[in-house]
Amino acid sequence: MVWDQLSLPPRISSALQRTNLKSVREVLSLPAVDVQRLTGLAHAEVHQLLTAAADACRRHAPLSVLQLQRGECCRCESGLRLGVSCPVLDGLLRGGLPVGGITELSGQSGAGKTQLALQISLSVQYPVEHGGLGAGALYICTEDSFPIRRLQQMISEQAILRSEVPSSLISGLRFSDHVYIEHAADLDSLQVCLSRRAPVLLAAGLVRLIVVDSVAALFRSEFQAEDWMERNKQLLTFSSMLHQLSQEFTTPVLCINQVTDVLKDHDSLGPLSSSVTPALGLAWANQVLVRLMIRRLQKTVSRGDQSSALRQLEVVFAPHLARSKCEVAVWREGVRGVMAFE
Fold it and tell me: Known InterPro entries for this protein (predicted)?
């Protein structure tokens, strides 16, 4: 690190060059008293040094609340949401998934998590005026093979699911060409995907949605119970990469999660009434902006020649949403709400 590149007085730069500190990250990782001891600088000079080091690490200039309110941030699209192609679900989510941050969708096997993820992977390809973001989706599979046949079926039924959209627009969208599928069998391949391939697709404008299906699979299979500290460390590294991609490219991230049994049914981080809670514990819950949970009910609903098990989609927590829920069903064309949310 060439300390002269920082906007510092010569006295501070010279003091730094006499130390063994090699980078601004090293400076920021030390308490101010240790920096003062190593450099021999006055307290005010140490404060000036730390401020300059922090500015060097910051990728973007800070923004005031007034700038955000006026919409002067080119990186932030205030109020923009990714719709899920269903008026009832969009109403539950107040427009859809937020474009910044991680949305988690958890539930038991067969609840309909992947069905909804596939639907959103198609919804993102619509123009903004129709609830999309005008780009494709990066779909990362960590468990099963990608359900390509189900995706093709949903594509063929888009005219039914999105009857409010002009048919000429739907026929002009090449949905299958814009779902980029990656398979990650271990944490190393997942890291390669997020650090190398995802940024390329995002920077080129080819994708505007990242789906990880599922986040719990790799962390459950690669770590034993006694390895919880290392697991949490890797989990935080993974979530940090997702947050960075989401914020840098204004991209929603949808993570499918498994569930685990609980002894209590009043956990504040779980659903209102269920014997399961999302996997990976508090370390992961703190990284999530919106937590949704879907569960299968002991009811069936019919429509024409189709029948579907009734599901319940619940908003467990979100900074902009009340804790609420609605009932949904899975049809050939996709996931639809069957009654107004509570």
Answer: DNA_recomb/repair_RecA-like, HHH_XRCC3_RAD51B, P-loop_NTPase, Rad51_C, RecA_ATP-bd, XRCC3-like_C
Full set of structural domains in the chain with CATH: 3-57 (1.10.150), 78-337 (3.40.50.300)
Spatial separation of the C-alpha atoms in residues 78 and 76, rounded to whole Å? 6
CA distances from residue 174 to 1, 84, 153, 201, 202 in whole angstroms, order as listed:
48, 18, 14, 17, 18
Q: How far apart are CA 26 and CA 113, in angstroms?
A: 43
pLDDT by residue for the chain (342 residues), tens only, comes to 566 677 788 888 888 888 888 888 888 888 889 989 989 999 999 898 888 888 877 766 666 767 656 655 555 555 789 999 999 999 999 999 999 899 999 999 999 999 999 999 999 999 999 999 999 999 999 988 999 999 999 999 999 999 999 999 999 999 999 999 999 999 999 999 999 999 999 999 999 999 999 898 888 877 777 777 888 889 999 999 999 999 999 999 999 999 988 765 455 565 555 588 999 989 899 999 999 999 999 999 999 999 999 999 999 999 989 899 999 999 999 999 986 433
